[in-house]
Amino acid sequence: MFFVSNISVLRCAVKQSNKAMGRRKSKRKPPPKRKAIEPLDQQFNCPFCNHEKSCEVKMDRARNTARIQCRVCLEDFQTTTNVLSEPIDVYNDWVDACESAN
Question: One GO CC term of this entry (predicted)?
Answer without folding.
Answer: transcription elongation factor complex
